[in-house]
Design goal:
The chain has one domain. It has a 6-stranded antiparallel beta sheet. It has a 3-stranded antiparallel beta sheet with strand order 2-1-3, with no helix packed on it. A two-stranded antiparallel sheet has the order 9-10. By secondary structure, it is of the alpha+beta class. It is built from 4 helices and 11 strands. Helices cover about 15% and strands about 30% of the residues. It is globular, with a radius of gyration of 20 Å.
């Protein structure tokens, strides 16, 4: 499974009303194929000049769709490692959509919105098994209802880029609790606003902690009218948990130099990747 990022120049032009329009289809589910779309209004740092051509650079996360992972079969693999004397760990990971601006959440730009996922490892002597997984919508909920609840699935996130992570060791009892909690949380429906990959990852990680990690919600502004004629009005949407706010929290903990700071890694160089995942076992 290979993941890579590139910077893509998007040529845009302004309509007579001064509203800039994207001139190519970035194959984003929020943007209909071969359809001119207003560029988002909630990124207030962008300044467009209607009298000249403008270029808008975004970080595209071009990925091969990760395969689904049967969580029960994934946890079955850990039984291959003897439990007597075994060591267990869980790592909560964040991949932001824009490494140069980690707080940017671009749900309509053609970039991914970022992702949060988990790395779970059991080792004993020279033997170890690692599973890397995250929470996804089974299908995109649809152009007109992108925030509705849909059936969820778990996918293999091996080799995914990691921009921030926090790791903690577990006891055997905690590991068994982790297994059961993972199965329970995986039954949730996916909803971009209310229960997404970051909700799942944080809920599972926090279920094993005496002091849970908490983050703020994230508000984005979307065009109310996606027609060719556009709209200057904005629709505010508050997302319960996002990779961006989790990145911010982990960075704050790291910089505070508390004891747990040593368990946090921050890296926006694109060099840190998740390990290979073991896969499924019957």
């Amino acid at each position: 499974m290979n993941y890579f990022s590139v910077d893509v120049d998007i040529t845009a032009m302004a309509s007579s009303s001064g509203i800039p329009y994207s001139m190519f289809d970035p194959n984003n589910p929020f943007i209909r194929r071969n359809y001119y779309q207003p560029l988002p209004y909630w990124d207030f740092n962008n300044k467009f000049d209607k009298d000249r051509e403008v270029y808008w650079v975004v970080e595209e996360e071009l990925t091969i769709t990760p395969p689904s992972l049967d969580l029960k079969k994934a946890f079955n693999c850990f039984d291959q490692i003897p439990s007597a004397g075994a060591h267990y760990s869980i790592k909560l990971c964040v991949d932001v959509s824009d490494n140069n601006n980690p707080m940017r959440l671009p749900p309509q730009t053609g970039s991914e919105t970022g992702h949060s996922f988990l790395v779970v490892t059991k080792s004993n002597g020279t033997k170890h098994i690692t599973q890397v997984f995250g929470f996804y919508a089974q299908k995109f909920p649809g152009y007109f209802f992108p925030f509705r609840s849909v059936s969820s699935t778990i996918k293999n996130n091996q080799l995914r880029e990691i921009n921030a992570s926090i790791e903690m060791g577990l006891t055997e009892i905690q590991f068994q609790l982790l297994r059961e909690k993972a199965f329970e949380l995986a039954k949730h429906k996916f909803a971009a606003v209310d229960y997404n990959c970051t909700n799942f990852g944080m809920d599972l990680f926090n279920s094993l902690r005496a002091k849970p990690i908490t983050i703020d919600s994230y508000t984005v502004y979307l065009p109310t009218n996606n027609s060719f004629f556009g709209s200057t009005e904005s629709n505010r949407m508050t997302i319960n948990k996002t990779p961006q706010m989790l990145f911010k929290k982990l960075k704050e903990i790291k910089e505070s130099k508390v004891t747990e700071a040593s368990c946090i890694v921050i890296d926006t160089t694109k060099h840190t990747k998740a390990p290979l995942s073991h896969g499924e076992c019957n």
